[in-house]
Amino acid sequence: MSVNRKGGKLSLACVFLAAALALPAGIERAVAAEQPSAEQIIKALKSPRLTRSLTTSPADAARAADDARFVNSLRNRTTRSLTTVERDKIATIAKDRPSIDLEINFDFNSASIGSKALPQVTALGDALSSSDLKGRTFVVAGHTDAKGGESYNQVLSERRAEAVKRFLREKYGIEASNLVTVGYGKSQLKSPTDPLADENRRVQVVNVADK
Description:
alpha+beta
C-alpha cells in the first residue's frame, strides 16, 4: 500500500482482488488485506482541524464560499451527466480536499457491483455512515480504463459512480443529496503507462463539505 498525504489528501493504491484469485491462499489473504478498511477510509476523508496556523485569508474564504455554492447546486441534480466545465470544477475542488482512490473491482465493461466489488463498497458504506463522516457531502467520481471510445467510457464511468451511490443509499441510508456523482471516463488514468490496467477502473471519493 502506498500512502501520499498532501494538503489533507490521502491516496491509497490497492492490489486487485481479481489478480489475487490466481495466487496461493496465503498470498491472496495478504492482497485482500491491503484494501482500505473503513477506519482507513475515515482517516483519509476526515477534514483536518482548523488551528491558528491554518487560518484562512479573505481570498481563501471567498473561494471556499464559491466552491460551497457550486457543490450545493449539484446536490439535487436529476440528470447524471455533468458538463465538461462542471467536471473540471469538481476536479479542481478535489485537489485541496480530503479524498481517497478506491479500486472497486468492476468487471470489464460493467457497472454492476458484484462479489469482487462488494468488500470495498461495504467498507466505504461503513465509513460514510460512521459518526465521523455522517452528514457530510461527498463527490463519488467514476473512472474507466482506456479501452473503448471517449463517449462510451464517459457514460460507463457515470454509471459506475451512480452504482456506488445507489448502493450507499439503499444499504446504508445515506441521503442522495449528500452524494454528488461525476464521471471522467478514461481522461484521468491512474496508470497512464498501462492504460488497460485494472487499477484505472476505480472510484474516487472526495469530502467536499462538512456538516
